[in-house]
Specification:
Number of helices: 5
CATH architecture of the domain at 88-246: Beta Barrel
Distance between the termini: 149 Å
Structural class: alpha/beta
CATH class of the domain at 88-246: Mainly Beta
Shape: elongated
Radius of gyration: 36 Å
Strand content: 15-25%
């Protein structure tokens, strides 16, 4: 008799004893008409991936790790570049000798030798929306310069570093002539295919051998005038062609 009473007490306690908190939560959830707990959608867990460039956060259906932008990268080797003089042309103008004139539309850079002659270099100019005109002075000359992309350029291309050291992979090439306090430069390029094009963000690119030659002629303080078009009165025929034409007229 006593054993039956004891068994009945145990069964009664098992039925009336409070359920665990988790069970109460699920029961309440079911009573409220929600999806049964075994069909409950699972919360996305953090995607702890062994990747150095993983940026944290929840694992999305389409996961693409964030790329961390490099702070400083190397520019490669710095070989010797021999200067090469371009052709000389007739250049009768009011521009001062030993000054630089840049014709944006013609994509030419002129170093004025006298009131009648100039060196002419083919260049690359700013693409549409990045051209400018005005007068500046050379404020610095640097060999194999480091490149610090401006914030505006980084905003357009997040793959750019904060700094690239000078070298054959650096877009500033073998030499750079800095223009005043602006971000613009006359500089070399390691991609000769861009010469003659409108391809830059406002700087003027030259062949490395040409910019090295130009740098040997100028100094800090040399004036640089950028025009949209050369005045029509300026003649830019090669000197050799002019001499041939003059000799033909003498007979």
């Amino acid at each position: 008799m006593n054993s039956r009473i004891a068994l009945l007490a145990v069964l009664t306690a098992a039925v009336t004893w409070p359920a665990p908190a988790s069970a109460q939560w699920f029961n309440q959830w079911e009573r409220d008409g929600q999806t049964p707990f075994w069909e409950k959608p699972q919360r996305r867990q953090p995607n702890y991936r062994n990747q150095p460039n993983w940026g944290g956060g929840w694992d999305d259906d389409y996961y693409e790790p964030r790329q961390r932008r490099a702070r400083v990268i190397g520019g490669g080797g710095r070989p010797y570049v021999a200067p090469e003089a371009p052709k000389t042309i007739a250049f009768e103008s009011n521009f001062a000798p030993n000054s630089i004139v840049i014709d944006t539309a013609g994509r030419k850079l002129y170093f004025v030798l006298s009131d009648s002659e100039a060196y002419v270099y083919p260049i690359s100019v700013g693409r549409q929306g990045f051209t400018w005109t005005g007068t500046e002075a050379i404020s610095r000359i640097a060999d194999w310069p480091d490149w610090h992309p401006p914030k505006e350029m980084i905003a357009r291309d997040r793959k750019l570093p904060d700094k690239m050291r000078g070298g054959v992979r650096n877009p500033l090439g073998a030499k750079a002539l800095y223009l005043g306090k602006t971000l613009y430069r006359i500089h070399g390029t390691n991609d000769a295919s861009t010469i003659g094009l409108a391809a830059s963000s406002g700087c003027f690119r030259m062949l490395n051998r040409h910019v090295v030659h130009l740098a040997s002629l100028v100094d800090v303080g040399t004036p640089v005038t950028v025009v949209k078009n050369l005045p029509e009165a300026i003649t830019t025929a090669p000197i050799a062609q002019q001499k041939k034409h003059a000799s033909a007229q003498s007979f």
